[in-house]
Amino acid sequence: MEFSKLLISLFIFQVFLPCHMSIQAAPANSDLFREYIGAEFNNVKFSDVPINSNVEFHFILSFAIDYDSTTGSPSPTNGKFNVFWDSDNLSPSQVSSIKSTHSNVKVALSLGGDSVGDGYAYFNPSSVDSWVSNAYHLDGIDINYEHFNADPDTFSECIGKLIKTLKNNGVISFASIAPFDDDDVQSHYKALWKSYGDLIDYVNFQFYAYDQGTTVLASFISDGSGGLTPKNGFFTACSRLKSEDKLHGIFVWSADDSKRNGFRYEKQSQALLAISH
Hints:
Number of domains: 1
Oligomer: single chain
CATH architecture: Alpha-Beta Barrel
Radius of gyration: 18 Å
Helix content: 25-40%
Structural class: alpha/beta
Order of helices and strands: EEEEHEEEEHEEHEHEEHEHH
């Protein structure tokens, strides 16, 4: 991640928020490429993924979850996060190695995700202050909670105060969020954006969570299960956005799935982002 004060929305954030809400201005075309990695334990390594030296490349480790186990009946731990990604292949030493090999690579950590064990991973704090205190020992973060046992204001205060504390203490220099088209999800992220939008640097909007009828987006899912796919016009849409100076970046779910096709679309995405208009 370019640890600087950029406010980059990977697409037009008005799709997510009502027009009357205050939106920070996004920059023009960006060479930002982001990819989630590690959630599906497919033995994918950082070094497997092709990295174009002419883009800003962000790996997002997925996921750190405040639950105690993936076996039996996992229980929420009130902000005490544990590793739920493929740490054998994506260890701290491997993070250091990929960053030293590629100066344009940064590595982030995603909190939450969809599930833990055989159930959903719920945002379930005991209190705002206790959750923030327990979650303190983190690096750069992406907020990816999709299920909630807390109201939007509690979510906003927990996540917002965490981001603010980490930034103020120099622990992280960026934060991103990963919302999608769901009423409950949007109500929680809208509350967060309304109160703490000035602290959010990137928005990974999950356009692949839409129905097949969606025609323009700036993210794709590698297994082709949703949204506008690379085979059916994703890159045409991105080229159009780039020609209009509106392509703020591309993000992908996920490197684990892309491994089986040789990261074909990662290469194509980065090549597109690296082109100057």
